[in-house]
Amino acid sequence: MPRKDEDAVKDESKAMDPVRKKAEPKPEAAKPVKADKPDEPAPKVADVPEAEPAEAIDRPAKARDVRGLAIKVAAVVVGLAAVVVVVFGVLVYGYSSENQAVKSVAALVPYPVERVNGHFVTYHDYLFEVDANKRAYQNNAKLNNQPAVDFKSADGKKLVVQIKQHALDKLTGDSLTAQLASQKKVKVTDKDVNDSLNLLYQRSGGKDTVLKTLNQLYGWSFEDLKGVLRKLLVRQKLEEKVTSDPAADAAAKTKAQNVLKDIKGGADFGELAKKNSQASDASSGGDIGFFTKGQLPDELQKAAEALQPGQVSDPVKDQYGYEILKVVEKKDDGSIHALHILIKTVDFDEYFQGELKKAKTNKYIKV
């Protein structure tokens, strides 16, 4: 029975198929669009740009935000830096502060303490000189078993004023020396500094001993030592340049020969030294005391070694001028006791003091 019903349904479905085919309309074929005129091309559909992703649309805005933030951050940093410069400037010029924070900032910001012929001297260099001198006084007292220096006491405060004035005077001289050296084309090379360092090591017990001693005495590092030596060499070479003037050299040589004639004529060496020598020991009759090899310039060392006690040398030319030596005593260990008379080609100290008087200086701190 069920089987019969299923067959009846199928037959009924087949019977309906022709009805469905008639009811569904057939799609018409697309007709080509004809131009109004046979020679005109068919109109084209305009290209529509593809929509950009949302991220691409937001990118310029994000870039503007980043730039704006960077500008704001930079402005804040610059503002803070300006505040730091101003605040520490007050500590420098208002209070001459020497605390560690001021020292750190002064190492980066070149606060000027004075100007020499238009060239600035920095507070950092000033503190370097002050610290070195304070340490020297403290260590000197310790080495000589004297009471520790109290810079806060009445006498200590007076000593600090002297130290600070000395530091400013030295820096003025250093600045002028550098300027004169530049004018006269005097140069100090790295080799000159290294040679000087090696000579110092040889004479003073080696590199480690020298650096340890200088750090204890002055608080100097290796770089500090190199800087100090460079300044010394600049001054030394400047002096050599100034005193090598031919006319001045000839005049000094003539004067030295005349002094030698007086000595050979029976005049007292010590008295002639007091009267004619331009060395710092002139008042003591030119007494050098005992010296060993390496303590005098090579020219004077050779001349002294060639003399016997009581003998006098001919004028010997060195970096300062013309020297006349008289050997007083020689010891078996090679040490020699001698007197000398120095006739400078040009008195460099007089020359430098003259330049110092002409220099235009402006000081920005009080000591």
Could you explain the architecture of this structure?
α4 (123-143) packs across α5 (154-183), α6 (190-203) packs across α7 and α6 (190-203) packs across α8 (222-242). This protein starts with a helix and ends with a strand. It has a four-stranded antiparallel β-sheet, with helices on both faces. The protein contains twelve helices and seven strands. Residues 1-25 and 29-38 have low confidence and may be disordered. The protein has helices at residues 2-23, 54-95, 100-106, 123-143, 154-183, 190-203, 207-218, 222-242, 246-264, 269-276, 298-305, 348-358; strands spanning 112-116, 119-122, 287-291, 316-317, 321-330, 336-344, 361-363. The chain folds into three domains: 54-106; 112-242, Triger factor/SurA peptide-binding fold (Orthogonal Bundle); 246-345, Roll (Chitinase A, domain 3), CATH 3.10.50. A hairpin with a 5-residue loop joins β5 and β6. The chain has 367 residues and is α+β, with helices and mostly antiparallel strands.
